[in-house]
Amino acid sequence: MSRPPKGIVHYIIACMRSCIEIILHQYARVTGLFAEHNRIEKVFLIGTLCSTLIMGMVFLSHGRSFYDLQLPLDLHPVKKIKPIKKTAGTFFNPKTIDLNPVREEPPSFNNGFRMPKGSREYDHSLHIDKVKFNPGTDLITIHNHKVWWESDHDGDGHDEDDHKMHRSMEEPFKRLVHLIELESKKHSRGVVLKVQDSYRAEGVHHAKSLHKQGRALDLTTGIPSELKGPGLPKEKTPGIPLSKLGKLCWAAGFDWVLYETHHIHVSCKP
Ligand SMILES: [Zn+2]
Question: How far away, in angstroms, is 205 Cα from ligand 1 center?
Fold first, then answer.
């Protein structure tokens, strides 16, 4: 890039200095306060005044606070109908989880769809290389009779444990189990959540998959009497349609949700 001619730079600086002198002069005339300040103090005071004015204009133009500006655009807080609180967690670390949905369900959720809309997983659930992971302290084990765990039906020769997942998954996961229970009752169907895949230290998933830190789950649903043996359900599953499951996963609070042909993949940041 070529540098601007020296003359122009001097001219701009001279203009700016004149403007500042005029402002200082007018301010001193009105307030009579500036006479006691030296040049550095005057510049500091004018700077503070200008930045306050600019911030005020920014707030007015957006009509909201800094806090609001930091919220993701697609995170719509929903009105809680009635508070449902249940105690969950281990004996030594009891914690209360609000089982109400944390977001509105999106209007549609078709194959290949993702939430937040059109985004990449790492934008929301953090890349595996950016997260320190210690299986000994980061993984928790969840047992819930309302959930069907594929690893419990794998038979001999398999050492996976789908009950293991990252502790960041606990809250949205338990909320999802509750939401599916409500959905199932609505249609008197007895549908349960199926965990097809959870923490996998190696194999199956690609090298940077969040499954390797237990921060991803592959989910479907089904009716217990029809859930025999491992494997993904056929095209016409008797459970809740995957499009509805995707919506519920998003409402449950997972940071990223993807409809991946035969299951819903969800993930969380730590
Ligand atoms: Zn997955």
Answer: 8
